[in-house]
Amino acid sequence: MNVLVLGASSNPERYAYRAALQLKKQGHTCYLLGQRPGVVDGMPLHTTWPSEDDFRPDTVTLYLGPAAQATWRETLLSKDYRRILFNPGTENPDLEHALRATGKECQQACTLVLLATNSF
C-alpha cells in the first residue's frame, strides 16, 4: 500500500519516525513529507507534496496538529486517495467532516497501534 506520512521527521524520538520505520518494515511504500529534508532508514524526507506521476497514496497518515494542517487542507481535500488517519493529537473535526463530504474514509487512530495489531 502507498502511504504518505504527513508531518514526517528524521528525529528518532518522534512517532512519525517510528511509524515510517514500521510501515516500511511491513512492506508499505512510503512518501515522507515533513518540514525539513532528511532521510529515515534510506527513505528520503521530502518538503513538497508528490506529483501524482511520482507517488499516488492510498492512505495519508497525519502527524501534524490542526493549525499546521491548514497548510495542506486544500491539497488533502482535492487529491484522490482512500483514507486519512488522524493520529492522537491531530484530531480536527472540521477537516474530518470536509474530507468525509468528499467521500474519503477518515479514522481517528494510531498508525503504530494499527500496524502492531495487523489492522492497518
Distance between the termini: 10 Å
SSE run: EHEEEEHHEHEH
Instruction: Quote the beta fraction.
Output: 15-25%
CATH superfamily membership: NAD(P)-binding Rossmann-like Domain
Low-confidence stretches: none
- Going by helix content, strand content and strand pairing, the class is alpha/beta
The CATH class designation is Alpha Beta
Helix content: 25-40%
CATH architecture: 3-Layer(aba) Sandwich
Write the layout of secondary structure elements.
Layout: E1 2-6, H1 15-25, E2 29-33, E3 38-40, E4 43-46, E5 59-62, H2 66-69, H3 73-78, E6 83-86, H4 93-101, E7 105-108, H5 111-116
Parallel strand pairs: 1-2, 1-5, 2-4, 5-6, 6-7
Antiparallel strand pairs: 3-4
What this model shows, in words?
The protein is of the alpha/beta class and 120 residues long. The protein has one domain (2-116): NAD(P)-binding Rossmann-like Domain (Rossmann fold, 3-Layer(aba) Sandwich), CATH 3.40.50. It is 30% helix and 24% strand. The chain is built from 5 helices and 7 strands, in the order E-H-E-E-E-E-H-H-E-H-E-H. The chain has helices at 15-25, 66-69, 73-78, 93-101, 111-116; strands spanning 2-6, 29-33, 38-40, 43-46, 59-62, 83-86, 105-108. The protein has a 7-stranded mixed β-sheet with strand order 3-4-2-1-5-6-7, sandwiched between helices. Helix 4 (93-101) links the parallel strand 6 and strand 7. The protein is globular, with a radius of gyration of 13 Å. The N and C termini lie close together (10 Å). The relative contact order is 0.19. The model has no long low-confidence stretch (mean pLDDT 97).
